[in-house]
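ok, trying the design again with the full structure, not the truncated one.
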């Protein structure tokens, strides 16, 4: 992944060099190009993604494709934008972040792919704008405040993600996925690029499994043009990544593929399922085992890479997987975004139940309210479900980053009364996607890997918006049409395998590690003014005795701990980002 940054306005070369050195080390040198008011920098082994074309300065990062799935160069981007302006981005596919200084418009143009696989953040003030692929680089600017966005952090503490369009810092904003931001003399203007969910009618006509398979295959093939690269697949126990692996194997029959799986041990369903899939496909397979004690080392490094933390158990494990794949492959494919497009998440199952099972919507809403408040549900049916799933004790209330308890995430049951709830839910996700895909990209890039997510392609989004709800979720299955498509090339032992969430075992060992992290991070000697998460709130979450934590208790603690790690790495050390040795900054240790 190529790191890039830039500044429009008055700036000196020393400051831009400092910004460039804070980008991940995909290259040793910081390449700087200046034209008119714009100064762009790129940290890479070469500066092929940074050039001037007439009255435009262009920087590109990622894997750019045209509408037919063919690779594009920075010259193609410059020519396409020159011909079509902002409309050019409607036909651009792949994973990309693009910055263009258009001197004719006196405007900075920032663009990002539909699901934000490539990260891109910006900030601005009077007569200046700055952008970067990683917001570490922006913290080198004294104009940018270190004030945290407490509402965004509070949303993370409840939901596990910073809300769309926000970061943990008040002054820093991500470019929304699937958007172009025009920044000129007036307020920034946001333009949604195609596919736009609002342009689609509610789907009714069914699609065929062959049509779905052909669309996924086309997307996989678009990322497999480099005949010199070594290809790998991040393989879970599910059908999403298995289908990617099978199609990649078909596209590159003479290439030795390698798959990688991460899990907590021999009993992990992902380890077991991925091992079976790799054996059936004849792929060289490697397993990465992560134990709870490994979190003491992994969590600070993962938060440093992610910048805004998130993802619960998944991201430290993906950090370890990327580290295990480093040097063995160049490109790492994954099945991310399949669940969003084809309705494969637990939220989709709950939404189906809320719509089709009498009384289920009310019970599910009660359970969600109880989960957030730390109380027992009011009605006896909801309380009975709570007892069966979570135990007979109310869960502790979540910790808060401030007095404002409002949350910015959409509740899934809000779609239950819609005519086509899964279609509406997908449209909402496309309009307000958060930064989790960009997070996975930077984890891979930390170890020099190019991350490929074929399900995030525009033509697959277009297809998903045309699939009726009845083909996505049924009484016994999620991702119904995707599984039928996969059956055309994979055995039912893979296509009908149950989906599992990637997580640790929440046993006594995990509980001991959580207690250790709490004791190391929330120490009384820490200055009160730098606190974001209240130690008293976190202490209420701690277990009594030696019992293991319940899953939701782990979740609340996890979010509080990672928020504290973030504070110590980015807020407490802000002065280091402003200093001459900023390029030497790295993750703290616990």
């Amino acid at each position: 992944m190529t790191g890039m940054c830039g500044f429009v306005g008055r700036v000196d070369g020393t400051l831009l060099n400092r910004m460039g050195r804070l980008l991940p080390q995909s290259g040793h040198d910081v390449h700087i190009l200046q034209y008119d008011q714009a100064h762009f920098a790129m940290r890479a082994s070469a500066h092929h993604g940074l050039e001037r074309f007439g009255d435009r300065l262009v920087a590109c990062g990622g894997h750019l494709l045209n509408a037919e799935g063919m690779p594009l160069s920075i010259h193609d981007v410059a020519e396409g934008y020159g011909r079509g302006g902002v409309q050019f981005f409607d036909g651009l596919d792949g994973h990309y972040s693009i910055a263009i200084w258009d001197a004719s418009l006196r405007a900075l143009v920032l663009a990002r792919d539909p699901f934000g696989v490539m990260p891109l953040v910006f900030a601005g003030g009077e007569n200046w704008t700055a952008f970067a692929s990683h917001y570490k680089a922006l913290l080198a600017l004294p104009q940018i405040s270190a004030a945290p966005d407490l509402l965004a952090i509070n949303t993370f503490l409840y939901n596990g993600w910073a809300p769309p369009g926000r970061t943990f810092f008040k002054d820093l904003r991500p470019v929304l996925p699937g958007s172009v931001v025009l920044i000129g003399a007036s307020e920034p203007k946001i333009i949604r690029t195609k596919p736009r969910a609002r342009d689609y009618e509610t789907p009714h006509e069914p699609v065929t499994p062959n049509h779905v398979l052909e669309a996924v295959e086309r997307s996989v093939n678009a990322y497999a043009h480099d005949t010199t690269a070594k290809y790998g697949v991040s393989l879970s126990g599910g059908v999403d990544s298995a289908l990617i692996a099978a199609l990649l194997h078909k596209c590159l029959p003479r290439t030795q593929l390698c798959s990688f799986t991460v899990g907590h041990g021999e009993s992990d369903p992902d380890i077991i399922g991925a091992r079976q899939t790799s054996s059936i496909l004849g792929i060289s397979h490697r397993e990465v085992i992560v134990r709870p004690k490994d979190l003491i080392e992994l969590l600070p490094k993962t938060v440093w890479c992610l910048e805004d933390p998130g993802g619960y158990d998944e991201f430290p494990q993906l950090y370890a997987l990327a580290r295990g794949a480093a040097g063995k492959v160049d490109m790492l494919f994954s099945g991310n975004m399949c669940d969003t497009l084809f309705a494969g998440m637990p939220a989709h199952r709950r939404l189906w139940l809320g719509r089709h099972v009498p009384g289920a919507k009310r019970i599910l809403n009660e359970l969600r309210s109880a989960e957030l408040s730390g109380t027992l549900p009011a009605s006896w049916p909801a309380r009975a479900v709570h007892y069966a799933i979570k135990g007979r004790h109310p869960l502790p209330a979540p910790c808060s980053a401030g007095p404002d308890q409002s949350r910015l995430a959409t509740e899934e049951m809000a779609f239950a009364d819609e005519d086509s709830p899964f279609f509406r839910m997908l449209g909402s996700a496309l309009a307000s996607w958060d930064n989790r895909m960009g997070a996975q990209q930077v984890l891979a890039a930390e170890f020099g890997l190019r991350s490929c997510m074929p399900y995030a392609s525009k033509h697959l989004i277009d297809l998903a918006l045309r699939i009726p709800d009845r083909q996505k979720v049924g009484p016994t299955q999620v991702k119904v049409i995707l599984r039928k498509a996969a059956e055309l090339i994979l055995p039912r032992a893979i296509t009908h395998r149950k989906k599992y969430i990637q997580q640790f075992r929440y046993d006594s060992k995990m509980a001991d590690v959580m207690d250790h992290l709490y004791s190391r991070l929330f120490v009384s000697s820490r200055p009160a003014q730098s606190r974001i998460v209240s130690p008293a709130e976190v202490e209420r979450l701690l277990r009594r005795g030696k019992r293991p934590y319940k899953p939701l208790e782990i979740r609340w603690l996890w979010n509080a701990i990672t928020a504290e790690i973030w504070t110590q790495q980015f807020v407490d050390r802000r002065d280091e980002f402003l200093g001459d040795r900023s390029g030497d900054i790295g993750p703290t240790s616990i």
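Keeping the full-length input from now on. Residues 551-571 form the longest helix (21 residues).
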